[in-house]
């Protein structure tokens, strides 16, 4: 039986290990991670964990006993090199691990803000449990919180902090929130939601410097204005951790390049999760996604291949984000849609946006409308579309899908 | 503490004393019960914590909320009348001796 070494003990790494055992893999399974403790969930870091509603013990994906019971070896260390000829991974402390198959699940790291002052005290990112703990400590004494970047993580953070009663300013460089990921209707809805809770949102805001001596005191914008700040959270996107793969001569193109079965060009090396670029049926081209669904389904697909039956990856992408009491769920891929139809009642806080590309339904964004979301996942899995003419008031998408899919 | 029993497809069963306030899903994860994936960590959003509640005990549970009801339409194993998302079942003293069966697939 092949010994599998997995580098990166996050959502994807954990799932590869767990699914290998579930599917009967008998060889060694070694999970190498550079963060302390057992692998944990990231989504609550900007939501329930940040606000204190979820205790730290419940962050773990599984307790230590799970790894013991299933013979999954957790190794704490940082992988610094891959010797593909000798099938060995080198760790920073000079240990070496021999593999029959190597899986890279190195994820991403936060993009750094390229301006003076970005390293001042009180300027933080949010990616790891350590980041969340540092933020929690700072939130207590903070008076002026500035969030740089109006994407999912920045907004979830802003919502969690606004709920604690702090005043927050969100700076967004573009002209709407979550621009990369959602339609204008959803952006507008969330803007209103945040503003209603007292959060200030500034668009077209370009940060040129952070002020302060040791601690941050202000954020300077391109127009010369300076916003007072004693806590700055930077959420301007991520960079995939591909150095290990690139140094080992594997193809990298905004992610570790893999085929439909998550294999790199070296048959003994695979990559899954946030760090992998794969040929997506839904994007009709190479895609790198940052979501729990993507990490878990990639991992399951790979474990299936490594234990016998190969199937090309075909899962429907889906994603969620919680901000205040609005639950956003996205099914499919909405990038480059050319038509968006709002269905339901945005004013009442429950609606879906149906996004079409060339007349074909490619994405459904639902706000507090889980039935639509689940129906969309079902429809996309079945390969179906929707006649846009049906989207009249009173149309029940769930019933429709139950009848056709 | 209320006792919860998890039955696998092969008929094997494990019982655990669970602290009230935890969900049936969380208790399963903590105890290492197989077959409960819980991809979304209890957000009623992934439908991978599906269980079948003992039919004789289903009346003890409050009816599913709309979100849970919609999720149950898309479970990997067919939905039955006693299908529930284990992350949405909060363990209380009244649920002592609750028995749930883990489906073949999530
Ligand atoms: C605050 C926050 C909120 C989120 N909310 C949501 C949400 O609501 N819904 C959703 O779907 N997704 C959400 N996500 C995204 C989701 O968490 C990621 O898509 C998912 O964790 C990706 O899993 P992964 O295993 O690919 O990467 P990660 O979970 O990032 O794991 C990678 C691991 O590899 C380690 N590593 C990297 N290089 C090395 C090395 N050389 N040696 C050893 N270890 C290494 C890293 O330290 C890390 O622990 C959120 C993410 C964050 C940060
Ligand atoms: S854990 Fe995801 S629905 Fe229950």
Structure description:
The complex is a heterodimer of chains A (405) and B (106). The model of chain A has no long low-confidence stretch (mean pLDDT 96). In chain A, 25% of the residues lie in helices and 29% in strands. Chain A is α/β, with parallel strands linked by helices and 405 residues long. In chain A, a hairpin with a 4-residue loop joins strand 14 and strand 15. Chain A folds into 3 domains: 4-109 and 238-306, FAD/NAD(P)-binding domain (3-Layer(bba) Sandwich), CATH 3.50.50.60; 112-234, FAD/NAD(P)-binding domain; 325-404, 2-Layer Sandwich (Enolase-like, domain 1), CATH 3.30.390.30. In chain A, the strands form 7 sheets. A 5-stranded parallel sheet of chain A has the order 3-2-1-7-19. In chain A, strands 9-16-10-11-12 form a 5-stranded parallel sheet. A 5-stranded antiparallel sheet of chain A has the order 22-23-26-25-24, sandwiched between helices. The longest helix of chain B has 8 residues, at 24-31. Chain B is globular and about 30 Å long. Chain A binds chain B through residues 22, 41, 43-44, 58, 62-63, 65-66, 69, 292-293, 296, 320, 322, 327, 329, 370-371, 373-375, 377-378, 398, 402, and chain B through 26, 29-30, 32, 34, 37, 39-41, 43-47, 66-67, 69-71, 73-74. The complex binds flavin-adenine dinucleotide and FE2/S2 (inorganic) cluster. FE2/S2 (inorganic) cluster binds next to loops of chain B.
